[in-house]
Amino acid sequence: MQHADLTHFENCAIRHRGLCSAASPEALAELNRIAHPHHYATGQTIISEDVPVDFIANVVSGIVKLTKTMPDGRQQIVGLLFPFDFVGQAFAGSTSFSAEAASEVELVRLNRKAFEAVVDRNPDLKQQLLVSTLNELDAAREWMLLLGSKSAEEKVASFLMLLVRRSINMSCGQEAQPVNPVFELPVNRADIAGYLGVSAETVSRQISHLKADGIIKLIDIRHYTVPDLNRLAGLAGQEPPIWA
């Protein structure tokens, strides 16, 4: 299948919010030449831990969960990747985590060696890759704080705020804040529980409490609005976000 006419990195959020925000038109053209779209069904493995992989990928749509297998065979969710995040590691032949499609996922895959060559030729891209790596480190530290110090209510509020902020980041920057924006729970409650280190029953109970308190409003099992964003942010220990 030919994809020569498809500019994979012109999606607004990917182009202006992700790694490619630092790409010159020439570097962007190089990336598009080595990019190929791939679709993954829910539950499909994208990358297996400690297995050599010859590509990295940019998430276009959907959610990817990162998991680590424990010595006794249990799996722990250690992270979630959203649109414009990268799957895999540049300048590394393998990763110590597995990547699995937590929902229907569209990726743009790039040959790892070819991508590294483009980065080497473009200092701005290399600088942005370093910034992205440092941001991932900060996110890992936040996740450690969430698991170790927050109550169940604070954990669920933090997760819902994560989705709110990600939705904001996916806007193009020229858009005004919509009235009563709708946010999606992109993974099931068992996955949310695994990510937060609580039970699925606890997730459901805390969501019900937030609904009863008027902080969130459930539209259906997968969608919600936030009538009281200040209170949700406060429960998460965060400042309310500003719509881009």
Write a brief caption for the model.
By secondary structure, the chain is α+β, with helices and mostly antiparallel strands. Helix content is 40%, strand content 21%.
Question: Topology, pairings included?
Answer:
Layout: H1 12-17, H2 25-33, E1 35-40, E2 45-47, E3 55-61, E4 64-69, E5 75-81, E6 86-87, E7 98-101, E8 105-111, H3 112-121, H4 123-149, H5 152-169, E9 183-184, H6 189-196, H7 200-212, E10 217-220, E11 223-225, H8 229-235
Antiparallel strand pairs: 1-8, 2-7, 3-6, 3-8, 4-5, 4-7, 9-11, 10-11
Helix pairs in contact: 3-4, 5-7, 6-7
According to CATH, the homologous superfamily of the largest domain is: Jelly Rolls
- Mean pLDDT across every amino acid position: 82
- Strand content is 15-25%
Please provide the ordered H/E string of secondary-structure elements: HHEEEEEEEEHHHEHHEEH
Describe the structure.
With 244 residues, the chain is of the alpha+beta class. The protein folds into two domains: 8-136, Jelly Rolls (Sandwich), CATH 2.60.120.10; 150-235, Arc Repressor Mutant, subunit A. Helices cover 40% and strands 21% of the residues. It is built from eight helices and eleven strands. The protein has helices at 12-17, 25-33, 112-121, 123-149, 152-169, 189-196, 200-212, 229-235; strands at residues 35-40, 45-47, 55-61, 64-69, 75-81, 86-87, 98-101, 105-111, 183-184, 217-220, 223-225. The chain has a four-stranded antiparallel β-sheet. The protein has a four-stranded antiparallel β-sheet with strand order 2-7-4-5. α3 (112-121) crosses α4 and α6 packs across α7. The longest helix has 27 residues, at 123-149. The chain is globular and about 55 Å long. It starts with 11 loop residues before the first helix and ends in a 9-residue tail after the last helix. Residues 1-6 have low confidence and may be disordered.
